[in-house]
Amino acid sequence: MARIAIDMDNVMADLTTHYLNYYEAAYGVKVDPATLKGIPEGSGFPEKDAILGFLHSPGFFRTAPVIAGSQEVIKALSEKHEIFIVSAAMEFPLSLAEKLAWLQEHFPFISWRNIVFCGSKTIVDADYMIDDHDKNLRYFKGVPLLFTAPHNALLTDYKRVNTWQEVAAYFALDTVTAI
Amino acid sequence: MARIAIDMDNVMADLTTHYLNYYEAAYGVKVDPATLKGIPEGSGFPEKDAILGFLHSPGFFRTAPVIAGSQEVIKALSEKHEIFIVSAAMEFPLSLAEKLAWLQEHFPFISWRNIVFCGSKTIVDADYMIDDHDKNLRYFKGVPLLFTAPHNALLTDYKRVNTWQEVAAYFALDTVTAI
């Protein structure tokens, strides 16, 4: 049994789709997701401060869509391994309660004992970390797995997982039941 | 420079005094703190479920008194070491925002990067852990320091620190400035 630390934003919660939808609703402009590839998260939108504004908006994290396959694969992983949800939530104080409620809604099988909201992730002791950010994976002492997001498209330093199906294959899960 | 994980409840926040004050206000009974020694946290009060009720009450964590010396000594520690505040906040969802606001008020020098709200503390990677609970110190791989609280009075398994002055002496801090 391994201990696997799993990030929320862009790994379990589809913030990219959420940014695009929020942006269209707020500014009436449909941004092409292809233009976000390889540039820093939150940039690439005509209004420069729009995304930071969304991140500080009540309800933003609570209403994020779930990334396809994350529920089924994390449930299957949790049956063979010790999983911890590790989210850098401290930068956005509103997100604390919203993220906990979001997890309770979409991942009710995860115990509060296995949830960590932090700032820096350097304090996390685990065997694997699934995350979309170089800054979180860089100082990790275990095995880093880069979950693909537009902003990390050009990063070549890590073993990459593009989908939750690839995560299931990496951990050799043969039975993943639909939720 | 060492990394020091510091618990909040009963280490930075004086929950014992807070329990006694809340209890007196709610039930009109002054409980003698000496009767709480060596028995589980929250027990020893005539109304069995009172403390659990307080822990789930809005405002309880936000209004907790600060333990004497914690501000000065943690500030001095943070200038020589990497400190992380690690609180098992996830069991009480209301406490998340309240604990963050409490830290911002009483410990404004602590960055959000160095705050961790978790369930189980087994995931914490640090050199030292200052905590009042056996369950948190038991699986810690670094040096555990037991901060004295009534409920742990009989525990003899750890190096004990009774006050923040003793923590300062343990880490050989020679300049601790009053806040």
Automatic annotation (TrEMBL), chains A, B:
Family recorded in the similarity comment: Belongs to the 5'(3')-deoxyribonucleotidase family.
Superkingdom of the source species: Bacteria
SUPFAM superfamilies for this protein: HAD-like
InterPro entries referenced in this protein's UniProt entry, alphabetically: 5'(3')-deoxyribonucleotidase, HAD-like_sf, HAD_sf
Ranges that cross the membrane: none
Name listed for the protein in its UniProt record: 5'(3')-deoxyribonucleotidase
